[in-house]
Design goal:
Elements: H1 2-69, H2 77-92, H3 97-122, H4 130-148, H5 151-188, H6 195-214, E1 219-224, E2 229-232, H7 234-240, H8 244-247, H9 252-255, H10 263-272, E3 276-285, E4 288-298, E5 304-311, H11 313-359, H12 365-396, E6 404-407, H13 408-423, E7 427-432, E8 439-442, H14 444-462, E9 474-483, H15 487-492, E10 501-508, H16 515-518, H17 538-548, E11 552-558, E12 562-570
Parallel strand pairs: 7-9
Antiparallel strand pairs: 1-2, 1-5, 3-4, 4-5, 6-8, 9-10, 10-12, 11-12
Helix pairs in contact: 1-2, 1-4, 1-5, 2-3, 3-4, 11-12, 13-14, 14-17
Length: 573
């Protein structure tokens, strides 16, 4: 008995020190690999910097030289020579005499070609050789590019040699670790009584893993080699509305018919044992179009495939909004420049008209009256143009967002009264406001801009955009209501994140829009009124303002029947 205990104690001690040795070896490998990887990373970064710097500086030198000789830059050739000197310093960092000499010679020839071309351009006596100088210049630049292209293969070969060294060290250390692990395994077999405890621990880990898998938002499905589903997590159950009991042990392509179109990628991943990834795919889930990313990941040994599906609809919508914001900022910058130019033109026009009016000396009263009417018509047109510019100023101006308590019924009524006077009797505006006070935290001036833009677009759809021969005018229906989005509503309107919204609906029975136009209606510069000189920024501005209120806009349009816009503003911002 004592001998058995001594043997067990000896076995435990030897196994302990063996495991300590394995652990130390693993730690040593990780530390060594860390420093080797850092060294390789630093070298690769440095080599990329050298290559990119040489290439970038030669391009900069070429572009600056062309700008100087074409008169597009006020700099002189000394700036070009400085760039070339800096390039020569980078060349000396390569550490390879042959490559350094090759690029250096090409750089000197390029510099000489620059001097000859500049001389031909500035010296009238050399004009006859200008074509030859230009050809020599471009030939020298091409040779320089070919010379610089030899840097990357050289630096890559050095990086590969470092990686090979790291692999060799890894193999040697791995052999040591494997030997120690084999020894430890021989010792561990003496403790077979621990198997049951290990199995229990595995069961706990599997339970924990199942909990983690089911808590993920990514839809996970694991298929065996027969394409039978063996894993169907909670996210997939909720997303597709198929319970685990019905999904497991069924064929993937029968359970999810849309996956049939990706069967080629599925089998390719299985055969090549390489993941396949498809991004930005459009699916109809519960009659709602969603955008998803699909990853097909084979397991080792060709025992099965994991399919991971991520819904990126909201992410793609966010990217689209960010792109629109950037384009809208570009619009603002262009408008500011145009506005300054227009103001100068109008100022000069006003002064000229004043001078002409003072100097009118007609031979008869009839001619004088005709001249004054003509000048008045010019001034009236100028004033209308200035009014348009003022509207552009208000659109281009980056107004500070100052939310305050706002009653929407009052705001909508004020804007509708103004628009009814502006649009005339051909357009009838019907209103259905909320039956009590409709308060929210908003910037009323910005909301005025949104409502004016929407109503103006509806008025255009009822008048100027109608085909020739059709009657002008129609009806605009405006209503204000409150909604409380539930789960089903949020599935249809993924932008709805607040607990309650005010919804301002503006509908007309105008010309309407096809789906391809509706999809781009909020993009900056896009307009359906090109022939009327519209800039295509009104709706993009309105969309940006609504998003600043943490709201969103939706539209529904049918060609020939009309368009309906809905503006969602959170009850409390």
């Amino acid at each position: 008995m004592q001998h058995k205990k001594d043997f067990e104690q000896q076995t435990i001690q030897s196994s302990f020190w063996t495991l300590i040795g394995v652990f130390a070896a693993i730690v040593g490998v990780n530390i060594l690999s860390y420093y080797i990887n850092v060294s390789i990373g630093e070298f690769q970064a440095s080599s990329r910097n050298i290559s990119d710097s040489i290439r970038g500086k030669t391009i900069n030198a070429n572009l600056l030289f062309l700008e100087i000789i074409q008169g597009a830059s006020d700099k002189d050739l000394n700036e070009v020579w400085k760039i070339i000197e800096n390039t020569q310093e980078d060349i000396r960092r390569i550490g390879h005499n042959e490559i350094e000499e090759k690029i250096g010679n090409a750089l000197l020839k390029f510099k000489g070609a620059m001097l000859e071309l500049n001389t031909a351009l500035t010296d009238p006596a050399n004009k006859s050789s200008l074509a030859d100088c230009e050809a020599a210049y471009y030939k020298a630049y091409t040779a320089l590019n070919e010379a610089t292209s030899s840097v990357d293969p050289y630096l890559k070969s050095i990086g590969e040699s470092k990686i090979t060294t790291m692999k060799t060290i890894y193999i040697a250390l791995s052999v040591v670790i494997v030997g120690l692990l084999c020894f430890a395994g021989w010792k561990v077999k003496l403790f077979v009584e621990m198997i049951s405890a290990m199995e229990e621990n595995n069961r706990k880990q599997n339970k924990l893993l199942a909990t983690a898998v089911n808590s993920m938002d990514t839809m996970l499905m694991f298929m065996d080699s027969e394409q039978q589903i063996t894993l169907w997590n909670s996210a997939a159950e909720k997303y597709f509305g198929i319970p685990v009991s019905k999904a497991e042990k069924t064929n993937l392509f029968e359970t999810l018919p849309f996956m049939a179109q990706y069967a080629t990628s599925y089998h390719k991943a299985m055969q090549l044992q390489k993941p396949e990834e498809m991004r930005g795919l459009k699916l109809n889930v519960s009659d709602i179009e969603r955008i998803v990313d699909i990853k097909i990941i084979p397991s080792s040994g060709e025992t099965g495939v994991l399919v991971a599906i991520d819904d990126v609809t909201d992410l793609e919508a966010g990217k689209k909004r960010a792109e629109n914001s950037q384009r809208l900022e570009t619009v603002r910058n262009l408008m500011r420049n145009l506005i300054d130019d227009f103001n100068e033109i109008f100022s000069s026009l006003d002064k000229t008209l004043g001078t002409i009016e003072e100097s009118v000396d007609a031979s008869s009263q009839e001619e004088a009256t005709e001249m004054k009417n003509f000048l008045a018509a010019i001034r009236s047109t100028s004033l209308k143009a200035q009014d348009k510019v003022k509207k552009l100023v208000s659109m281009a101006k980056e107004k500070e967002f100052v939310p305050r308590k706002t009653e929407l019924n009052t705001l909508v009524t004020k804007v509708l009264d103004i628009c009814q006077d502006m649009f005339g009797e051909k357009i009838q505006i019907n209103r259905t406001l909320y039956d009590s006070k409709a308060f929210t935290m908003a910037d009323p001036e910005l909301l005025d801009t949104v409502l004016f833009n929407m109503l103006e677009n509806s008025a255009h759809a009822l008048t100027v955009m109608r085909p020739d021969g059709q009657p002008q005018g129609g009806i605009i229906e405006v209503s204000l209501e409150k909604i409380y989005p539930d789960r089903n509503y949020r599935q249809i309107h993924p932008q709805a994140v607040a607990s309650s919204y005010w919804v301002l609906n503006i509908a007309d029975n105008g010309v309407g829009m096809p789906p391809e136009t509706s999809a781009r209606i909020f993009d900056p510069f896009f307009t359906t009124k090109d022939k009327f000189g519209a800039a295509g920024v009104g709706l993009s501005v309105a969309d940006e303002i609504v998003r600043r209120h943490r709201g969103f806009m939706e539209l529904y349009s049918v060609p020939g029947q009309g368009t309906s816009f809905s503006v969602f503003i959170p009850e409390m911002v």
